[in-house]
Amino acid sequence: MSIRKMISLHPDVHGHVNQPLGDAVHHLMYCAKMCLSCADACAAEKMDMRECIRTCMDCADVCEAACRVALRRTGSNEEVIREMLELCARVCDVCAAECEKHDHEHCRLCAQMCRECAEDCRNAAASVTPAMA
C-alpha cells in the first residue's frame, strides 16, 4: 500500500490527494531512513565523520517532523505545512552538501535522496493552498 492511498482514504480528503504533497510525504519517509542509515555507516568509517553524522541525524529528524505535519488532513494548518516543507528543503540541501564532501557510496546515495526530497518539498510547499491542503 502506498502512503498516497492511505491519505486518499481519510474522510476529509474524499479520495483527492494533492499529488505534490503526496510525493513529498513519500520522499520524506524515505529520506529520514536514508539519513539515519548514512549516519550509522558514517559512524563506522575510520575517518572523523562527526559533522556528517550530525547533519544526517538532524535531517532525519526534520524529515520525520515534516512528514507527520504533512500527513495530517483533519482541520487545516496550511501555513505550518508550508513552513515545515520549506525548512525541510533547506535542511535536506545542507545534508546533501555535507554528504557530497565524502567519497563514500552511502553518502552519495544519501545526498541524492536529500536532493530529491528537497525538490519535492519545494514543489509541495508551492502547491499547498487553503483549498488543497
UniProtKB/TrEMBL annotation:
Gene3D superfamilies: 1.20.1270.360. This is Four-helix bundle copper-binding protein. Pfam families: Csp. The lineage of its organism: Bacteria, Pseudomonadati, Pseudomonadota, Alphaproteobacteria, Sphingomonadales. InterPro entries: Csp_YhjQ (IPR005560), YHJQ-like (IPR044543).
